[in-house]
Design goal:
The chain is an alpha/beta fold. The chain has 17 helices and 11 strands. Helix 3 packs antiparallel against helix 16.
């Protein structure tokens, strides 16, 4: 029976680009020279490598059980090859699977109380504003850009994304616009300054709340734009909004809470109002997270409490809440390009990032950004913009009989600039 070292040596022999592994005792496996090197401090990492548990290998890196040398794109090309099975495949189900799913739903509800959600959001977003500023664009837009033209810079593509959303929502001057999970205010401020809406944003991040309120004062938008530190469940429903956007938010809500989330949005929308639900979706239809330990890594180090769902599941929950899907657009390759731009920017300022966030956080984000870029390229993750309405019940409302909203039921208006 071959030894663990022999298994790994055989596994890496055919990899491209070349990979070399140095064991704790100094023995080297693989070619010389190699594009990517792994230097192991702990033999547990060798087990994870041999079994294709890439998420556990990433954890070993963050916990200093191994060091990685090489360009992020080369590292991720190898990671894709080392994974033993499709990470979007359905996880094995035992006879106890139904019972475990019930227990999992209970745990999911417990992980998504208002207090737990606030803690989880702050874990991710309140690392350091200056850390994020190193690798995001000037507006600090932390969601998928829209490369409308191939030659766009990241900053231009982020502005194109903001405008793409505003056009899809058909924002008009004076309308009341709600941005759920408004981040550092990119969409909220763009909508107010370019479309004349009266904007209301909410976040659970203290850093983001303070940042956006500073910008509101600096730009003279007080009275037109409001930013609150508030859970979506606490939003009052006595004054419904004309339009609502949720960008990069529903991933934090949790599978068990999606019916509550979309029902709340439905009550917050005026009859005939429009919703833009933009976020990351699963590449597989049955997996609850990415396999090969990747989902566990993200839950532990990046997005605690985050859950990914296939777009079909999300649309079903939206429909169940009384929201009519009008248009769905897949921007998956756009997010791959966005993430590589973030990864490149972070790699160019590693020493500054290390000083701001510490070595452990930096290691986690280096792998997270590059690994996510590769996951979108592979189709393991996706990104959808889902435009929906709250039908008014009045078949005479709208540009076509039966529209029951302002939506024209064609896409021509989205392309007009």
């Amino acid at each position: 029976m071959p030894t663990l070292e022999a298994l790994v040596e055989r596994k890496i022999a055919a990899l491209q680009p070349p990979l070399a592994v140095t064991l704790p005792g100094g023995r080297r496996l693989g070619p010389l020279p190699a594009a990517v090197t792994l230097v192991l401090q702990d033999l547990r990492a060798l087990v994870h490598l041999a079994t294709g548990q890439i998420g556990r290998v990433a954890e070993d890196y963050v916990e200093h059980r191994l060091d990685i040398g090489g360009a992020p794109r080369d590292v991720m090309r190898l990671a894709v090859q080392l994974i033993a099975a499709d990470p979007t495949g359905e996880q094995r189900r035992s006879p106890l699977a139904a019972w475990r799913e019930l227990l999992g739903a209970g745990r999911a509800l417990a992980r998504h109380t208002p207090a737990a959600d606030a803690q989880q959001v702050q874990f991710h977003y309140d690392v350091s504003d200056d850390f994020y500023a190193l690798w995001l664009d000037e507006r600090r837009i932390y969601s998928c850009a829209y490369f409308r033209d191939a030659g766009m810079t990241l900053a231009q593509a982020q502005e194109a994304k903001l405008d793409h959303i505003c056009r899809k929502l058909m924002l008009r001057e004076g309308e009341r616009f709600l941005d759920i999970g408004a981040g550092w205010g990119g969409l909220l401020l763009w909508a107010a300054e370019h479309y004349g809406v009266r904007g209301h944003g909410i976040t659970l991040s203290r850093n983001q709340h303070a940042h956006v309120n500073r910008l509101i004062e600096e730009r003279g938008l007080r009275g037109r734009v409001r930013m609150e530190l508030l859970d979506y469940r606490a939003l009052p429903e006595d004054a419904p909004f004309d339009k609502i956007a949720s960008v990069g938010m529903f991933e934090h809500v949790g599978r068990a809470n999606l019916p509550v989330y979309f029902a709340k949005i439905r009550r917050l929308l005026k009859p005939g109002g429009l919703l833009m639900n933009h976020g990351i979706t699963a590449g597989g239809t049955r997996n609850r997270q990415l396999g090969a330990g990747i989902g566990d890594f993200i839950d532990r180090y990046i997005f605690p409490g985050g859950e990914l769902l296939h777009v079909s599941h999300v649309l079903r929950e939206m429909a169940g809440a009384g929201l009519e899907m009008l248009d769905t657009e897949n921007l998956r390759p756009h997010y791959a390009r966005t993430l590589w731009a973030w990864s490149d920017a972070l790699e160019s300022r590693l020493e500054e990032a290390r000083a701001l966030a510490g070595e452990r956080v930096l290691r986690a984000y280096r792998l997270y950004l590059a690994g996510s870029a590769a996951s979108f390229e592979q189709g393991w993750l996706s990104l959808h913009q889902m435009l929906a309405s709250a039908p008014s019940g009045d078949v005479g409302q709208g540009p076509m009989r039966g529209a029951q909203s302002s939506y024209p039921f064609n896409r021509d208006y989205m392309a007009k600039r």
